[in-house]
Amino acid sequence: QTEPLVPTSPRKTSAPTSPRESSAPTSPRESIEKDSEVTSTQIFGAPIEVAVDRGTPESRESRIPLLMMKAEPIIREHAGDEGIFRLSGGHDKIQYWKRQFDLGEDPNLQEEVDIHVITGLLKLYLRELPEYLLTAKLAPNFEAVKRIDNPHVQAMYIKSLVEQLPEVNYCALYWLLSLLWDIIANKETNFMGVENLALIFSPTLKCSVNVIQILLQDFEVIFGMAE
Q1: Tell me, what's the pLDDT at 225?
Q2: 3-state secondary structure of 55
Q3: Which residues of 182-220 are buried (b: 16+ CB within 10 A; e: fewer)?
Q4: 174 exposed, middle or buried (CB, 10 Å; 0-12, 13-18, 19+)?
């Protein structure tokens, strides 16, 4: 089986914004200016194409956000860990790393010793995307797959929709599914098969369990690696 390529992305560094020192009320104009300072580097809650553009040259070339590039090799190293993506990491640690990325840093996730913090950070990033990874336009079409009974027709139908995704959404989806395939390949030790991962990523990606199951089960067909 051919291992999918994984997009990667480096990141620019910018100085953190300091908290407001005055307790005086903030005018609407000041609020807008302060918001623009914060959002000039943040990736959490930003459109995925913006997050890609705020990455490093390497991650921009791969067309995925820096966080995805940084998390990927670490998660693959722990693909056999029991409960990966199911068990929760510490909230404070996840928020710490989120803050580093949102400040425009290029954090070294290798310093994090808890793999569940890194998987939790990735799930949080995906959950906070302002639009479905499958896009608002195509999401209802993906859900319509449940009206198709034939498994092969289901796969080809989903493939036709995936091919309509914007480039950055397509790359991110491919990256995520290829990573989850590594997790599934180690299900004898991590106890995380297709069904478990579909249940976990359904609320994260804001789509049905059925859609995620098809994306995982027919990954190679959908992305043109099998006939």
Answers
A1: 67
A2: strand
A3: bbbebeeebebebebbbebbbebbbbbbebbbbbbbbbb
A4: buried
Query: Tens digits of per-residue pLDDT, 5-51?
Result: 443 333 333 333 333 333 333 344 443 444 444 478 999 999 999 99
Q: Is 63 left (phi over 0), alpha (psi -120 to 50) or beta?
A: left
Whether the CB-CB separation of 124 and 77 falls below 8 Å is answered with no
In total, the chain counts a number of residues equal to 227
Quote the DSSP letter at residue 146: G
Tokens of 123: 């799930």
Contact 9, 101 (CB under 8 A): no
Q: Are 66 and 9 in contact (CB under 8 A)?
A: yes
Residue 129: is its pLDDT beyond 60? yes
Closest listed residue to residue 179, CA positions, set 77, 87, 108, 66: 77
